[in-house]
Amino acid sequence: EVQLVQSGAEVKKPGESLKISCKGSGYSFTSYWIGWVRQMPGKGLEWMGIIYPGDSDTRYSPSFQGQVTISADKSISTAYLQWSSLKASDTAMYYCARHGGYCSGGSCYRGDWFDPWGQGTLVTVSS
Amino acid sequence: QSALTQPASVSGSPGQSITISCTGTSSDVGGYNYVSWYQQHPGKAPKLMIYDVSNRPSGVSNRFSGSKSGNTASLTISGLQAEDEADYYCSSYTSSSTSYVFGTGTKVTVL
User: Taking the mean position of all CA atoms in its chain, how far away is CA A114?
Assistant: First the structure.
């Protein structure tokens, strides 16, 4: 079964740093892109960025470029989302999700959807 | 980039059909057949319902169907059931930032 399991809820103060994780299992982690999505309280979904764990190629939404860092450690099948200095406005649920596109045998195949999704990590930033 | 536009809410009685629209531009919905739809129940992670405009993943009920005309994509739920009550989001690839954009979300209520 393809599964993404995210790290637990976090409560932080403004200015603190944070790194949350997303561990993939049940598939070749290095062959599929992983995306991150923000959902602020009572609001809709916002696409943040995406990483290809095979070579750490990373793309960011213009809205999140410079605000967060997406990384991956393929040796432990885990993707990360991190902040160097949190703000109260970073309070949200954060989801990781596997992108539909993948690479295999030297060829890459397009798949512009996200499935499955992790269970979400709630980040609360408050003084 | 701006979010795709969806109606805030749509409602219907059990057994009826409803349609949710998702309007974008020629840089996203209208330019590519890369529209997907997600269902989100309260407190749960989103679930993929439709990909590439009209394809259903394995395990998704055939009561869900997708289509597109010009810059507007649509999700139709036929034979509405109580379990369909949820928030629905569309998403599209966008060339304006070589990334993805979500819709504003639609709350579906089963009367």
Answer: 12
